[in-house]
Design a protein that fits this description.
Helix content is 75%, strand content 0%. It has 7 helices and no strands. The protein is globular. 43% of the residues are buried.
Length: 171
């Protein structure tokens, strides 16, 4: 591995951790900037390093470092009701990177962003539903519906930022 193959994923793991602390509490699932940095890691770093950046983030949190929302950490947090969202981060970053890298058009970036958000929602919703006694309807109302517009806005911001960063920085 080259030095930048270690530095860039570490940077995005740290950015995701910072994004987790910028939170607006909204019941069980807070609004954070994590999704923004997950998408950016895929767009900017590509599938392999984007995946690695989010895996590093999860590893830091599972080891107990306070990198998750509200300065929390530990394996129990990953196992908890919002753990599905966290587990989806590496997969979402990989898919975003893979799709956006194939053809760097606005349409591909938009489709990649939508798929990344969908994967995060799907795994998060299912995990939350398990913790709500299998009530997937309630889990959707609590863990997905309030966030759709907000995450689409974050996704649009990620596309704009990624396009500009890629114009000036070669990864």
């Amino acid at each position: 591995m080259r030095a930048k193959d270690i530095a860039y994923p570490s940077l995005f793991a740290a950015l995701t951790a910072v994004g987790a602390q910028i939170a607006i509490p909204l019941g069980t699932v807070p609004i954070t900037l994590q999704v923004l940095f997950v998408l950016l890691s895929g767009f900017i770093l590509g599938p392999r390093l984007g995946f690695l950046s989010q895996l590093i983030y999860l590893l830091m949190g599972s080891l107990g470092l306070p990198v998750f929302a509200n300065l929390s950490g530990g394996f129990a947090y990953i196992y908890g009701p919002t753990g599905g969202y966290l587990i989806a981060f590496p997969l979402a970053a990989f898919l975003v990177g893979f799709l956006s890298e194939r053809q760097e058009t606005f349409l591909n970036y938009t489709l990649a962003m939508l798929l990344g958000i969908l994967v995060i929602y799907l795994l998060g919703w299912l995990r939350l539903g398990i913790f709500m006694g299998g009530d997937l309807r309630k889990a959707f109302i609590v863990g997905v519906a309030p966030f759709v517009i907000i995450d689409l806005i974050k996704g649009g911001i990620a596309i704009i930022v990624a396009k500009r960063v890629k114009q000036v920085v070669t990864i």
